[in-house]
UniProtKB/TrEMBL annotation:
Signal peptide: none annotated. This is Short-chain dehydrogenase. One of its GO terms (molecular function) is oxidoreductase activity, acting on the CH-OH group of donors, NAD or NADP as acceptor. It comes from the Eukaryota. PANTHER family: CHAIN DEHYDROGENASE (ATSC), PUTATIVE-RELATED (PTHR45458:SF3), SHORT-CHAIN DEHYDROGENASE/REDUCTASE SDR (PTHR45458). Gene3D superfamilies: NAD(P)-binding Rossmann-like Domain (3.40.50.720). Pfam families: adh_short.
Length: 267
C-alpha cells in the first residue's frame, strides 16, 4: 500500500520501475513523463489501473510543480517514494575527454546544459516540488538515480576519461543528495543517490558507434571487474534498485550506492 512517483518514466529504467511497482496492485504508481501520449508508457498504464500518467518535465519548474499538484490530487496529498530518474546528455561530446573540451563559452555550455539541467536543477526542482507530499507520506524517501561514472575510485581504476559533463553532473547530484539528507533528517526524510548499474536501455538495434563505445567501456570496466560480460537488463537493475530503496533508512540517508547496495560493486 505504497505510493511512488517516477520521473523520466517513458522508457528504459524509469519505465521498468513503473512496470515492476505496478505489478503489486496495492501500490499507486505515478509515471511522470514529458509526453503522456508516448506509446510505451500508455500501453503499460492501460494494463494496470494503479498506474497514473502525469505530464511533467523536471527541467521546467512550472511543469514539475504542476506534476506535483496533479500527483497530490490522486494520492490525497501524500507520497511515499519519489524516484528522480530523468537524464539527458549532449551525445556529440560524450566521447570527448576534458582536454578536448572547447575554449568557447557557448559551446561548453551547450555540452554541460543537458546534464546539469536534468541532474542538478531538475533534481532540486523535482525534490522541492514533491517535498510537501513526501512529508505527509509514510516512507518519506527521495531517490535520485545517479551513476557509477561519478565515482572517483571507479574513474581512476577503470581509466574512464570520457563522459565528462555527464559524470560531473551526476557527482554534483550526489552532493545535492547529501545536502538534502542533512537538511531533511530532522523531518524523518531519507535521501539516496543510487546507481542502477550498467544497463542496456537502447531502443532497437544499436548503431555501430554505440556498439564500439560499449566495447571500449567494457574493456575499461573489466580492469575493475575482470568477470564482467556486459550490460545488464533493466529488469535485473530495477529489481536490485527496489531492494536498495526498501533498505534505505536514516543511517544510509545521504549516501551514494550502487544497485548492489554498496560503493564497490558498480556492475
Ligand atoms: N543505462 C545505464 O547504463 C545507466 C547507467 C548509470 C546511470 N543511469 C541513469 O539511470 C537513469 C535512467 O537511464 P536510462 O538509460 O533508462 O534512460 P535515459 O535515456 O538516460 O533517460 C531517462 C529519461 O529521462 C527523460 N529525459 C530525456 N531527455 C530529457 C530532457 N532533455 N529533459 C528532461 N527529461 C529528459 C526521459 O523521460 P521522459 O521522456 O519520460 O521525460 C527519459 O526516458 C538516468 O538517470 C541515467 O543517467 C543509466
Amino acid at each position: 500500500m505504497s505510493s511512488y512517483a517516477i520521473t523520466g518514466a517513458s522508457k528504459g529504467i524509469g519505465r521498468e520501475f513503473v512496470r515492476q511497482l505496478a505489478a503489486d496492485s496495492t501500490n499507486t504508481v505515478l509515471a511522470i513523463v514529458r509526453n503522456p501520449k508516448s506509446a510505451d508508457i500508455s500501453d503499460l498504464a492501460s494494463k494496470h489501473s494503479n498506474v497514473h500518467i502525469i505530464k511533467g518535465d523536471v527541467t521546467d519548474p512550472k511543469s514539475i510543480l504542476e506534476a506535483a499538484a496533479a500527483a497530490a490530487a490522486i494520492t490525497d496529498g501524500k507520497l511515499d517514494v519519489l524516484i528522480h530518474n530523468s537524464n539527458a546528455v549532449d551525445k556529440d561530446s560524450m566521447a570527448s575527454t576534458p582536454s578536448q573540451l572547447p575554449f568557447d563559452a557557448q559551446a561548453i555550455q551547450n555540452i554541460f546544459s543537458p546534464s546539469l539541467n536534468t541532474a542538478i536543477y531538475g533534481g532540486i526542482w523535482a525534490t522541492n516540488a514533491f517535498l510537501p507530499l513526501i512529508e505527509k507520506g509514510a516512507q518519506k524517501k527521495i531517490v535520485h538515480i545517479s551513476s557509477g561514472m561519478a565515482d572517483v575510485d571507479l574513474i581512476n581504476k577503470a581509466g574512464v576519461s570520457s563522459g565528462v559533463a555527464y559524470s560531473i553532473a551526476k557527482a554534483g547530484l550526489n552532493v545535492t543528495v547529501a545536502k538534502y539528507a542533512a537538511e531533511l533528517a530532522p523531518r524523518g526524510i531519507k535521501v539516496l543517490a543510487l546507481s542502477p548499474g550498467w544497463v542496456d536501455t537502447w531502443d532497437g538495434e544499436k548503431p555501430a558507434e554505440v556498439v564500439y563505445a560499449n566495447e571500449l567501456l567494457l574493456k575499461m570496466f573489466q580492469l575493475v571487474e575482470p568477470e564482467l560480460k556486459g550490460q545488464i537488463q533493466p529488469e535485473e537493475s530495477v529489481k536490485k534498485c527496489l531492494q536498495v530503496i526498501e533498505n534505505l533508512n536514516a543511517g544510509s540517508s545521504g549516501s551514494f550506492v550502487s544497485h548492489n547496495g554498496d560503493r564497490s560493486r558498480w556492475f
